[in-house]
């Protein structure tokens, strides 16, 4: 294994409540009453810029309301999953090349990485604004591999959603589930399920003993 690529939301950071609240704040003039988490989650998929543009095409301020709420409330409403930072540090120290592939738009991805203190771990970051087809398409993963100059057979992708699994398989990389975040759907389809970030170290850095 030469490279490990990560999803962001739900894998490294617990940001779902923040994203839902920020979307409700951004789209309040259009939606009126706040929508439930389940209703908002059904809109997930494209970068938030595309989502907001589709919901509020005639409101030029909606995007700024989203970013303003997202940054102002990040410290209170989001967190890095326990164990993630030391595992990333160990992977880098052991020579693994790390990349990040997310469907988040560029601005919110950078806010997240800066506020969480995670940007320094990644050689490359591919956000949803950089690819024509976000996950579950493999485009983002393939772009990250090209930037790192690493073959798919030497890499893995860590994610928590079915779209992460589909994208990893389509890109030809191993699919590792961030089981510390949620119980993955289609558990048998993942190549490995990490119940804690430390499990990644045992899986990725393990070398068979000499006989």
How would you describe this protein?
- The chain has 211 residues and is an alpha/beta fold.
- It has two domains: 3-14 and 79-204, HAD superfamily/HAD-like (Rossmann fold, 3-Layer(aba) Sandwich); 16-77.
- It is built from nine helices and eight strands.
- The protein has helices spanning 16-31, 37-41, 48-55, 62-77, 84-93, 106-116, 139-148, 162-171, 197-204, and strands at 3-6, 13-14, 79-80, 97-101, 124-126, 155-159, 174-178, 192-194.
- The strands form two sheets. A six-stranded parallel β-sheet has the order 5-4-1-6-7-8, with helices on both faces.
- The radius of gyration is 17 Å and the shape is globular.
Q: Which key features would you list for this structure?
A:
211 residues; globular; Rossmann fold; alpha/beta; 2 domains; two-stranded antiparallel sheet; 6-stranded parallel beta sheet; 45% helix; 9 helices
CATH superfamily of the largest domain: HAD superfamily/HAD-like
What is the succession of H and E elements? EEHHHHEHEHEHEHEEH
For the CA atoms, what is the radius of gyration?
Answer: 17 Å
Average pLDDT number:
94
So what's the overall shape?
globular
Number of strands: 8
